[in-house]
Amino acid sequence: MRNFSISPDLTPLYRSAIGFDRLAQLAEHAAANNGNNGYPPYNIELLGENRYRITMAVAGFSMTELDITSEGEKLLVKGSKANQKDERKYLHQGIAERGFERTFQLADHVKVIGAELENGLLNIDLEREIPEAMKARKIEITRARLITE
User: Fold this and answer.
1) Is the pTM of this model over 0.70?
2) CA triplet 54, 55, 57: central angle to 5 degrees?
3) 81, 99 in Cβ contact below 8 A?
4) Integer CA distances (angstroms), 137 to 127, 133, 140, in order
5) CA atoms within 13 A on the CB side of 71
6) Most CB contacts within 10 A, which of 60, 77, 89, 134?
7) Do the beta carbons of residue 113 and residue 126 sit within 8 Å?
8) Is the domain of 22 the same as that of 70?
9) 80 plus 126 within the same structural domain
């Protein structure tokens, strides 16, 4: 059986939606296979209206072997195992000991506010901080003034 990769053509969206080209680029990026093979598994939770949490299963990694970098609208989580001469002979090795890189595309105004490692789970807390100028505001309606000549 053959697997076919279908790449959606979002060109019509570029032509008909003014100012939404970034949305189309994000959709194309999500549809593309960017090398993430599903390791390590992760969850994304909605904690509140503007609060999120990414939880990654990183069993076997210590805090010194994990690195989190936030640059612009990208969040990069890396795990690298130190090269150790291991003399153990496994009958079955089901616990992955390979390094990883996982990239998350953050929406506008989303900031990383903290991270913690507990029981093999890496929790990364995020919050969307909407600038005052972009928040909804009520516009007062006034009576029209009559112009007299």
Assistant:
1) no
2) 145
3) yes
4) 21, 9, 10
5) 6
6) 77
7) yes
8) no
9) yes
148 part of a folded domain = no
Q: Which residues pair with 147 in a beta bridge?
A: none
Structural domain for 30, as ranges? 10-35
* pLDDT tens digits along 78-123: 999 876 666 778 898 887 778 899 999 888 888 999 999 999 999 9
Q: Which amino acid is at 59?
A: A
Spatial neighbors of 103 by CB under 8 A, at least 6 apart, are 34, 36, 74, 75, 76, 77
Residues 6+ apart with CB under 8 A from 138: none
CA dist., res. 16 & res. 4, Å (int): 28
Is 52 among the domain residues?
Answer: yes
Count of the separate structural domains present in the chain: 2
- Alpha carbons 57 and 37: distance in angstroms, whole number: 14
Average pLDDT (41-50) is 91
Cβ atoms of 58 and 117 within 8 Å: the answer is yes
| 110-118 and 100-105 beta bridge pairing | unpaired
